[in-house]
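Q: Structure tokens for this one, please.
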Amino acid sequence: MALLLELMLIFVSVHLCSSFFLVCPKHTQCPNLPTGCLCRESCPRFNFEINCRQANFGSSLPRDTFMGVKSINSGLPIELYLPDNLADINIDAFNGIEAKIQSLNLRNSTFVRIPAAFGKLHNLKALYLSGNHIQTLTYSDFNAFANNLYTLSISLKYMSAYPQFIDTLPVLWQLTLKDIPFEMNDMSIFSGNSVISTLTITYSPTYRGPIIPPSIVNLSGLRSVYFYGSQIPCDCSLKYLQHWDVSKVGIISPCTTGIYEVLEYIKGDLQRC
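A: Here is the predicted structure, written as tokens:
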């Protein structure tokens, strides 16, 4: 019995050590894919990563680009990174892997609209579109994966208003809005949204509106908010936030004065305005 217990202890120790000291696989050239596409299993082994950031597809991702991935057959969900210079995607570009793509990174490309090829990505859960030139965004653009999407990062630089359909996405808990050029004063923004728990906001250099949008009080499930590149004036100009329940919210942004933390000010001196 003592020997059995000793062997069990050794097994548990080895298992714990292997969990804490992971040996992550390196990126290697993907077989049967264009030069510049590197592959590896993520560490821990949750996803199969295809990184084509250095691949040269020209301005358009061609048909059947990833058919060669079938030969790898890892069985893992795919996390796909595409290069910066894309402006278009052939509707059949994702043939062979469309059902496996769960994360798609298209940061800093030049798309002005959502490609029709996204309509085949029914299992997409994370979409990164910041740095693009997208001018309009509608529910129909996201229809194929609307019920699965939990992470969205997008630039609003070329839009004239917040795309309010975002507030209807049922499991979207992490939202990043970048390069906002217009004032976020409309109280209907975030209306009825109890899902978003992490919100990140950056404004364009020309933005002149309130750093904390008044409609942030609508986010009943909010737990953390980040205002990158912005300092918040901790004075009575924030009076519109007097009744905001911040008991469960973390705000990552300094006061302009540097005297207060924003949460401290909202809960304290702001109540006397």
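A few notes: The radius of gyration is 23 Å. The longest strand covers residues 174-180.
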